[in-house]
Amino acid sequence: MLLLDECDSFFDAEADAGFPQTTRLRDLMSATERRFKPVFAGLHQVQRFAGLPNQPLAEAHFGRALGIGPLSPGPAYRLLQEPAEALGINFAHDSLIHRLLAYCNYHPKLLQVAGEALVSEALASRTPDGPPWTIDNDILERVIGSPDLRRRIRDTVRLNLNLDPRYKVIALLIAHNAHTHGVENSMSTRALRQQCAEWWPESFTHHTADEFRVLLEEMVGLGILANERDGWRLRSSNVLRLLGTPDAIEEELHAHDPNDTSTRLSISQARRPLPGARISPLTEQQIAGLVRRNNALRIVLGTDATCLDDVTTALADQQQRTPSELAPLIQPTTLHAYRQALSAGKARSPHRLIVSDMRRFKPDAVDTALRDAITRQPASGVTRCVIALIDAGNREHLEVLSHYAEEDILVPLQRATTDGIRSWVTPTDVLTAFNAPEDRRRLFSVTGGWPILLNQAAELAATRHSAPDICRTLHDALATPAGANQLLEAAALTGPALQGILHDLSELDEPLPEDDLVDLLTSDHPDATDALATLRHLSALTETPGTDDSALEATIATAWRAHGPR
Hints:
566 residues, alpha/beta, Arc Repressor Mutant, subunit A, four-stranded parallel beta sheet, 15 strands, 54% helix
């Protein structure tokens, strides 16, 4: 067994290079029939990497990832009580143990530190008539009041927050809310995301709902947050105490450096090739969220341009890779079959994905189907995720979604990034024309990362066209009225409601901050705020990294200026 620690930077480098060393270790394990096995340990980057299904360490190859974080109450209780009992030390009553567990946030490292201090204090106070010796309230007070223990607990919490500067901003805002409304009060994902964007627009403004949700789930794994039905809160009052007073929290928020760089794992934007060398409309991070074993509702929002039709294919591909974890996809075609599927299933059976294409539903039917997904739960021990496919260009459907906690359930399809294109191209023989970085950059420039255009590139590559020929063919097609209108229609951008604001956005010379865009557009377009939100759902806006500046995506802007509806 090869034990490897501090693997966060290693995985970053591996993802950028296409996993050469990780793949060699995996192949060695397979060649030795698992008599050799590497074990990777680390912090948040390892946690992110382990949650992605399409990489060499995916569960099908190396087994289930283990999160080492706060203990559950039973094991935490035994970690204090059993060693003390073996040393002839008893607790006067159980409430003392539970008090110390809460003080240490159930963290095993801190429980060991506190336990050592308790044993030392108890033995220093022992009497000749023992053992057993008793830990009473006075001894516990001396240990809890120890400046050294308090410092070590505070340093552990701060160490986790400093892993990613976004963690600190999130934790401080929830702590501020806890001081105002109580530590048990939860913040909704939407309210928390809005506040984060206000305090640090350069980092948070451009997070999609599912990307932000992943950050919060990481903080749960680190023992900082707890996830309640109605939102997110700090894991305990002790975490709140360690974060400081209301004044100290406000001071730290104001002192936050907006130029801090958040850590991202490039593979989170990776996309797998589907049959026919088509690019997956879902990132690996999105697939990981959709197949996570819990009872959930997720709404995948997309258009023909972001290849919403291929979502089912991508999920079926994942099911075929992990058949022991995922049951075959369930695609009900009637209301009766849909409702039956919601509450069906057997305990301890593979996780079930219920995919419902709601694009042709009337608004009332969409609302009913979504409410059914929330209220009709399966039996204990059964898990299923309802995945509703919704057209991002259907304004009536978007109005229905506005009545739900969108931040918790939306999975918006986006244009592929350069990392996404690289991961799609690398394992696919048909796409070897784009193995060179400069050819991939040219492809991204021509297509804007729109999946519909990337799939056209794959079709051309299958006929042995070279990368320059493919890019030139796509460019020339988009320069024609037919090609430009085909893209605009696929992106749901030809309807009359958006024509005016699209025209004005296409005339802008440079990106502008969100507030400036709204101020500029509102005089001619009173619904500018809602229209910009719709364009984001359609993936038609692009953001400047490190700022809150937005502009119409370049491929769309060019097509609109040349051949858009008038």
